[in-house]
Amino acid sequence: MRVQIIDVSKHNGVVDFNQVKAAGIEGVIIRAGYGKSVSQKDPYFEINYKSAKAAGLHVGAYWYSYTQTVGGAKDEAIACLEVIKGKCFDLPIYYDIEEKHQIAEGPAFLEGMINNFCERLEAAKKFTGVYMSAAYMKNVPMRTLVKYSLWVAQWNDKLTFNLIQPGMWQYTSKGVVPGIAGDVDRDYMFKDFPTIIRTAKLNGYDSIYDLDILEQSVINDTDLTLLYELRSQLERLRDKYL
What is the pLDDT of residues 135-173, one digit of tens each? Predict the structure, then answer.
């Protein structure tokens, strides 16, 4: 399969996701935030999530890393989980690694930070993965790459990354899509993540209620807040008793 996806952050401004969907885009990966603090949540995350869901798009998220230590990746994971708490994603939650100082630390450092972030998310029943450029990803030990879903950035007409089959390929940063002012990252999705994630009851789909369906019908901000709180309460009860 080869499904058209985009990824967005505050840098894309206000997005008309209805136009995006009408243009043939089927999903979006939204930046949830960056760094080790909840205060670093992307200011457009909430509106992007709400609007993309309302348009009927598949939705995932990513968290941009700035950590300078292996242990700092745990703090970034905790912040990410707090920001996305109470929401449902039928695409993966990715750890975005792009900083040159991280790559310069070498394979052991990269392996440690990836495991620290992704293991913390998996413990919270999230389907997680790693975003890196094709060149940078070659610095990560294979034993780590095979553990998580890969989102490879290689801005080219052809994907030549061949260490392992990625689930997602970001093929340009200069895409043009109706509903978005200026350039936007465009991606191909090669795996049926919505089915995988829902079947495994991950990323918020472990409730006895399909709150995601309800969420797509709710347009009142107050009711949406109540829905997110309900999800959070259900997650706490699950962690306590299951």
Answer: 999 999 999 999 999 999 999 999 999 999 999 999 999
| Residue 145 to residue 164: CA distance in whole angstroms | 8
- Domain that includes residue 131, residue range: 3-241
Which positions ≥6 away from 54 have C-beta within 8 Å? Answer: 17, 216, 219
Tokens of 124: 């919270």
Q: What's the CA gap between 80 and 11, in Å, rounded?
A: 19
CB atoms within 10 A of CB 13: 11
Distance of CA 195 to the CA centre of its chain: 16
- Number of domain units in the chain: 1
Domain at 126, CATH number? 3.20.20.80
Each residue of 59-101: pLDDT tens digit? 999 999 999 999 999 999 999 999 999 899 999 999 999 999 9
Entry pTM: 0.87
**Beta-bridge partners for 58:** 27
3-state DSSP of the chain: CCEEEEEECHHHCCCCHHHHHHCCCCEEEEEEEECCCHHHECCCHHHHHHHHHHCCCEEEEEEECCCCCCCHHHHHHHHHHHHHCCCCCCCCEEEECCCHHHHHCCHHHHHHHHHHHHHHHHHCCCCEEEEEEHHHHCCCCHHHHCCCEEEEECCCCCCCCCCCCCCEEEEEEEECCCCCCCCEEEEEECCCHHHHHHHHCCCCCCCCCCHHHHHHHCCCHHHHHHHHHHHHHHHHHHHHHC
Backbone angles phi, psi at 22, to 5 degrees: -65, -25
